[in-house]
Design brief:
210 residues, alpha+beta, 2 domains, four-stranded antiparallel sheet, 4 helices
Length: 210
C-alpha cells in the first residue's frame, strides 16, 4: 500500500513482502538548492530506501541525483568527403520554355553552380498534356496528377545528375542525346503509372457510388 506525501515534499510508500512482517519503505525529498552540485543545477533529489526485516533489523540507503541539461553535441568530423547538396525544384510551363530551351519533348534539366543547385521540370511535357487532355479531370485531379509527376520526375533528374558525376568521359553531344531519350522513357513510365492509379481509383469510386 502507499502513503501520502508529507510536509517534506516527499512521496512515501510501503509494501509488505513477507508474511512474517518484513516491510520496505521508500521516500524521495527535494533537497535545498545549497546542497546541489553544481550550484546552478535546476533539480536535485535523494531517494531513500528503508528496509525492516522480521527480526527488527533496519537497512537504509540513499542515492542522490541531479537533473542537468545534456551536453551539446559535438560537431561532425570533417572527413574530407563531399556533402550532398539538396536542389531546389521548379515547375516550368509553356510560357518559360524559351528561357530553359525546352520543347514539348523536354522533360527537365538540372542546373548546378557554386551558388545554386536547381532542377527544372517541364510540366507541359507532351506526355503530361496527353494525359490531362484525354481524361476529363477536375481541378483537384489535375493538381494531384501534376504533383505526382513533379515529385517522381524531379527525383529521377536528381539521380541522373548525381550519377553523372561518376560517368566516364563521354562525348557531350552523344551524352545529351542519350539522356534526353532516357528522360522521355522515364516521363512515359511515370505518366503510365499515374494513369493506371487514376483508373483504379476512379473504378473504386464508381463501385462505391453504385
Amino acid at each position: 500500500m502507499c502513503g501520502a506525501a508529507d510536509s517534506g515534499c516527499s512521496i512515501r510508500y510501503c509494501r509488505s513482502r513477507s508474511s512474517r512482517g518484513a516491510r520496505a519503505f521508500g521516500a524521495t525529498r527535494k533537497r535545498p538548492r545549497r546542497s546541489c552540485t553544481p550550484a546552478d543545477s535546476p533539480t536535485c533529489s535523494a531517494p531513500a530506501v528503508r528496509l525492516a526485516d522480521a527480526e527488527g533489523r533496519v537497512f537504509t540507503d540513499t542515492a542522490p541525483y541531479m537533473v542537468v541539461d545534456p551536453p551539446a553535441p559535438e560537431p561532425a568530423a570533417d572527413d574530407g568527403k563531399s556533402r550532398l547538396r539538396v536542389p531546389n525544384i521548379y515547375e516550368v510551363y509553356f510560357a518559360d520554355w524559351l528561357r530553359h530551351e525546352f520543347t514539348d519533348a523536354s522533360v527537365g534539366r538540372a542546373y548546378e553552380s557554386a551558388d545554386d543547385y536547381s532542377i527544372a521540370v517541364n510540366m507541359d511535357n507532351r506526355h503530361v498534356r496527353r494525359l490531362l487532355t484525354t481524361i476529363d479531370y477536375q481541378a483537384a485531379g489535375i493538381a494531384r496528377v501534376r504533383s505526382s509527376y513533379l515529385v517522381q520526375t524531379a527525383f529521377y533528374l536528381f539521380l541522373q545528375h548525381e550519377g553523372g558525376r561518376h560517368d566516364p568521359a563521354i562525348d557531350d553531344v552523344a551524352l545529351e542525346a542519350y539522356q534526353q531519350r532516357e528522360l522521355d522513357r522515364v516521363a512515359q513510365t511515370i505518366i503510365t503509372s499515374i494513369a493506371a492509379v487514376e483508373r483504379i481509383d476512379s473504378a473504386a469510386l464508381l463501385e462505391i457510388d453504385a
